[in-house]
Amino acid sequence: MFFSEQYYADPHPVLARSRSRAPVERITDPAGRAVWIVTGYAESRAALSDPRLRKRFTPPDEPPLFHVLNSDGADHTRLRKPLTRPFTARRVEALRPGVEALTDGLLAGLAGEVDLVADFALPLPFLVVCDLLGVPEADRADLRAWGAVLSAESHDAAQEAAELAMTDYFRGLVGAKRATPADDLLGALVGSGLDDRELVSTALLVLTAGYETTVNLISTGVLTLLRNPDELAALRADRSRLPGVVEEVLRFDGPLTTATPRYTSEPVRIGDVLIPERQVVLVALAAADRDPARFDRPNTFDPTRTGGHLAFGHGVHFCLGAQLARLEGEVAFTALLDHFPTWELASDDLAWQRSPLFRGLRSLPVRLER
After folding, report:
1. Which residues pair with 269 in a beta bridge?
2. What is the pLDDT of residues 127-183, one digit of tens each?
3. What are phi and psi of 262, to 5 degrees?
4. What is d(CA 16, CA 38) in angstroms, rounded to the nearest whole number?
5. Which pLDDT belongs to residue 160?
6. Residue 310 φ then ψ, to 5°
7. Cα–Cα distance between 9 and 14 in angstroms, integer?
8. Mean pLDDT of the chain
9. Backbone dihedral region of 313: left (phi > 0), alpha (psi from -120 to 50 degrees) or beta?
10. Closest alpha carbon to 135 in 195, 69, 204
11. H or E stretch including 53?
């Protein structure tokens, strides 16, 4: 059943049954709304690039939180353009030495039984994105605390307060960057023509999207390798396999179960199904990336297979941080292999996030031996 405890622990059987019934079907979301879920690879790819599937119904009066994610057409192009240059492959590769230094620093004090999420997979991308944005070190503990509240599964006054605090913080940081130009991403965005509200929502997007999914890539990737010891041994013996491992982790058990919601601006046919106007559409990336019509032996972890997964989306909303996530995954796995000749899962009792969107572990108890 969709959105049950079993689904959150492992959505793939439920998604596979849905796809076997039809690559597009109507279901009920956790809020009790009727939504359409797309599970076939071809149908998902088409849906992600269809301009009739929009992020908003009406023009925004105020830029909402994560505005670039919730925009369409010319507005989306305008908001996205200032972020494209900092995330080119060349500029991201230039970040590698800094990411490696942060990684080695985090791993230096680890040994024995650790929670790989709390002790490594979460702080690494958080620190990387703070460096990228130019967040002063003295402010990072507050941001981390607010982020933890926002990512909690409950929705209450504490989350509203954390959202307001984080928004106020970035409003102040934007003002500081305007007053004193800085050589960082937020400093560059200040000169891009975006107004202060758009800058704040963009900074919030970069912060949260810049680490939440990478946490899941690293921790789920380690778990997947532990559950596939032959592949882990092959990677230890031949590090040239690493890019393929990262891509296959993204396909096999990527950091998002579904893409962020879309809405039909008019009746839209996806596959053989005509979805009426003003309907919510969820593209199930996790299902598309295990579609046997696209991938041979889709439930087998095989780092030698070629690309084509949809873990980063497709079309105009393709993830801007894809190259950075790949780099962080490669650096993280390399450092873990270098520092620790032995990895062992410390418990089979694993807790997964109860999120319709994110696919990630709350914690990952492992034993790491030097």
Report:
1. 274
2. 999 999 999 999 999 999 998 888 776 677 888 898 899 999 999 999 999 999 888
3. -120, 165
4. 11
5. 87
6. -110, 20
7. 11
8. 92
9. left
10. 204
11. strand 53-54
Which amino acid appears at position 235 of this protein?
L
Give the residues across from 336 on adjacent strands: none
Looking at residue 238, its pLDDT comes to: 96
Ordered by where they begin, the domains of the chain are 5-369 (1.10.630.10)
At residue 274, φ and ψ (nearest 5 deg) are -95, 115
Q: What pLDDT does 154 receive?
A: 66
Identify the segments of the chain with pLDDT beneath 70. 57-69, 153-154
Rg of the chain (C-alpha set):
20
User: Is residue 89 helix, strand or coil?
Assistant: helix
Q: Which pLDDT does position 127 carry in this prediction?
A: 95
Alpha-carbon distances of 45 from 119, 309, 311, rounded to whole Å:
36, 10, 11
For tokens 């993204």, the residue is 250
Say how far residue 139 (Cα) sits from the centre of its chain: 23
State the virtual CA torsion across 351, 357, 359, 365 in degrees, nearest 10.
Answer: -40
